[in-house]
Amino acid sequence: MKNTGGVPTLEMVAAVAGVSRATVSRVVNGSTSVAPEAAAAVHAAVAELNYVPNRVARSLASRRTDVIALIVPESTSTVFADPFFAPVVRGVARALSDTDYTLNLLIASEARPEKTRRYLLGGNVDGALVVSHHAEDHSYVGLGDSLPIVFGGRPVNPELADAHYVDVDNQASARLATSHLVDIGRHRIAHIAGRQDMPAGIDRLTGWRSVVTGDSAPRPDELVEFGDFTQESGAVAMQRLLDRATGGPLAFDAVFVANDQMAAGAIRVLHERGLSVPGDVAVVGYDDDTFASTLTPPLTTVHQPSADLGARMAEVLVARLAGRNPPRHTLIPTHLVVRASA
Amino acid sequence: MKNTGGVPTLEMVAAVAGVSRATVSRVVNGSTSVAPEAAAAVHAAVAELNYVPNRVARSLASRRTDVIALIVPESTSTVFADPFFAPVVRGVARALSDTDYTLNLLIASEARPEKTRRYLLGGNVDGALVVSHHAEDHSYVGLGDSLPIVFGGRPVNPELADAHYVDVDNQASARLATSHLVDIGRHRIAHIAGRQDMPAGIDRLTGWRSVVTGDSAPRPDELVEFGDFTQESGAVAMQRLLDRATGGPLAFDAVFVANDQMAAGAIRVLHERGLSVPGDVAVVGYDDDTFASTLTPPLTTVHQPSADLGARMAEVLVARLAGRNPPRHTLIPTHLVVRASA
DNA sequence: TTGAAAGCGCTAACAA
DNA sequence: TTGTTAGCGCTTTCAA
C-alpha cells in the first residue's frame, strides 16, 4: 500500500530533487553537511510539491513528539473559575508559538490521577507544565525523574523541593503593596490573608508582616484575619477585623488584602458599616483582576503577571528540552497599579 | 536497533500472551473476532507488563491522530484579554476528557495565516475547533473541505455559510433581556449596541429591536448608540444617549447594553450625571462577567454559557469524526441573572 | 479466528 | 558529503 498522489512525502521530494531520502531529511532538518547544490535542489522540490513534513512519522522515528503538555487540575477548571488561569495559558501558547512545540492542554482528573500519569509517561509528550494550586496534590511526585516538568507556582510539597518552578515573587509583591500604604501615610495596616496551604497565601502574609513589624515572626495581637480567597470570606474577615474595635476607635486605617476577590468583599462590608474607602480605610488588593477597575472605588492592587508566568514556564521547559540548564527557580517581579482605593 | 527493556511494546505483549502482534492489536482495539481465551491471555499480559499503546505509532499506521486543535486568533489572546475565552477552553477540555481525543491549543498568528493552515493540513490533527470573532478573517475558507471544522460563534463570512457552528442564541437572549425590562414596567427602553461586524453585536441589536418596535426594521429615531464592547465605549454611548434629551426629560427609563463591559461604563456615567440605577434608569447587561456581581448596583445580565459552548463544539466535532451527522447549527439557550440593576 | 507480512513517513547509524 | 539500510511501534490487508 504505497502512498500515491495526495500529500507529498519525503520520498517524493527525493525523487524530484534527484537525491536520497536521507539527504532530503538532512536539508529539511537544517543539517550543515549538505552540498549547496543538493540543498538547492531539495528546496526547489519542496516548494514545487508544497511538501510539509509529517510530524507523526518524525516523532515515531526520532522518539520526540514536539509536544508539551500543560496540566491543569480539574478543580481549577471547574469549581474555581480561576481568572488566573486563562492568561497563563495564553502566555504559554504565545511563548510556544515561536518554537516548534505544540501545546497539549490536559485537564487532570483528580478522581483518577493515574490516567494523567500514564498519558505523560506514555511517550505522548516531551515535557510538562503543571499549574499547581494544591498543597495536597502528590500526583507529580517522582514524575519529574522520567519527564522534564516545570511548575507554575512553587510546589509546597517538600518532595518537590528541588523541582523547577516559575513563580511570582509574592513576598516582594506584598511588601510593595504594604509599603505603598506606608508611603501614603497610613500607620495601622491590617491584613486579610488567604489560604495558608498555598504559597500565595503564606508568602503574601509574610511580606505584609515584614513591613509592618519589621521581622517575620507572628505576634499574638497582630491585625490579621484569614480568608480562603473567596469574596464572601473577605467580607467575613473584614467584619471580624472591625469587630475587634467594638466601642473604641477603629484599630486600623488601611488593609492589604491577599486577593481582589476578598478585597471586593471587604470593601462591601466597609461601605455597609458606613466607612469610606480610602478615607477611613485605604485598601490594596492583589491580582489586578478584570473587575478591579470597576469596583467603587477602583481598586489599587498588585498586578499579577500571569501571562508572563506562563511564558516563562514555557521558556524554562524549552530550555531544559534543548539541553540547556536554566535556573531551577525563576521569580517574576510585579508592579502596583495605583487606582483610587489607596 | 531493537527495543529492549524500557517501555513495553505490543510485540512484547504478544510474546508473553503467546499470540501474534495482530491479535494483540485486535484485543487492544476491541475487535470482536478474537477467541475469548486469546483475549484473556492478552489482557493478562497487558496487565502484567503494564502496557500502554504508543499513540504516535498508532497514528502513523492508522493515519489518525486523536488530536483536536482549538484555534484561537492571536488578537483574542493578546489585545482582548477576552474573559469569554477561558470558559470555552475549559468546556472543550472537559468534553474531550471523556474521549480519547487530546486537545491542541493553537494560537493562530494573524500575521502569517499559512502557518496555521499548513499545520492543520499537515496531518497533525483530525479536526479543528475555531473560536472566531472576526468578520474579516478569511483564513479558514476552504479549509473545511479537507478537515472537519466546527466554529464557535456563527461565522459572518458568507463563504462559510454552510459551516458547522455552535452559537449562543443571541437574538433570543436579547429578547429575554429586553422583555425583562418590559416586565418590570419600563416603557422607553434604549440599547447600547456592540460592534456591528460581529454576529454578537448584530443579533443582540436585532433581538432588542424586535421587542421594542415589534418588527426588525430600524427606525431613524430609535434609541440606539453604538460601542465596540469596551468599557470606555459604553460610557461614551451613554453620554450620547443622555445628550439626546438636553433640557427635556429623560428619553428613556431603561437600557439594554450589549455586554457587561459597556454596561459598567454606562452605569458609571449615569452615576456621574446624578442618575440612579435602577431608579431612573434600569440596566441589563450581557455576558455575566465575573465582575457583574461586584458592580454598584450588582448587574442584572444575561448569563453567557461559554463553557457549554465549548463543550458543545467539542461534541459536535467528535460526532462528525465518528461519522455521525450532527446538525450543522447548534444554538445554546441562555438565562437571565436578575440582580439589582433591573 | 488467526498470523504473516507489508507498510505508515521519517530518522539515524553506518559505510562508502 | 552522500546513499543504504534498518528500524520506530502499530495497523491492516490477505491468505490460511
Question: Averaged pLDDT of chain A, please?
Answer: 88
What is the class of the largest domain in chain A in the CATH system?
Alpha Beta
Based on CA atoms alone, the radius of gyration of chain A comes out at 26 Å
Biggest interface, chains and residues, is: A-B, 45 and 44 residues
Q: In sequence order, what are the helices and strands of chain A, one letter per element?
A: HHHHEHHEHEEEHEHEHEHEEHEE
Task: Give the CATH H-level superfamily of the largest domain in chain A.
Answer: Response regulator
Strand order of the largest sheet of chain A: 2-1-3-4-5-11
Q: Which assembly state applies to the chains in this document? A: homodimer
The total number of structural domains of chain A is 3
Query: What's the overall geometry of chain A?
Result: elongated
Number of strands of chain A: 12
- Structural class by secondary-structure content of chain A: alpha/beta
Enter the CATH topology name of the largest domain in chain A. Answer: Rossmann fold
The CATH architecture of the largest domain in chain A comes to: 3-Layer(aba) Sandwich
The percent of residues in helical segments of chain A reads 25-40%
Largest sheet of chain A: 6 strands, parallel
Which stretches of chain A are poorly predicted, pLDDT < 50 over at least 5 residues? none
Model description:
The structure is a homodimer of 342-residue chains. Chain A has helices at 10-17, 21-28, 36-49, 55-62, 74-77, 85-96, 113-121, 170-183, 199-212, 231-243, 260-272, 306-321, and strands spanning 67-73, 102-108, 127-131, 149-152, 164-168, 189-193, 224-226, 254-257, 282-287, 300-303, 329-332, 335-337. Chain A has 342 residues and is α/β, with parallel strands linked by helices. In chain A, the strands form 2 sheets. A 6-stranded parallel beta sheet of chain A has the order 2-1-3-4-5-11, sandwiched between helices. Chain A has a 6-stranded mixed beta sheet with strand order 7-6-8-9-10-12, sandwiched between helices. In chain A, α2 packs across α3 and α6 packs across α12. The longest helix of chain A is centred in the last third of the chain and has 16 residues, at 306-321. Chain A is elongated, with a radius of gyration of 26 Å. At the A-B interface, α4, α6 and β2 of A face α4, α6 and β2 of B. Chain B binds a DNA duplex (16 and 16 nucleotides) through α2 and α4.
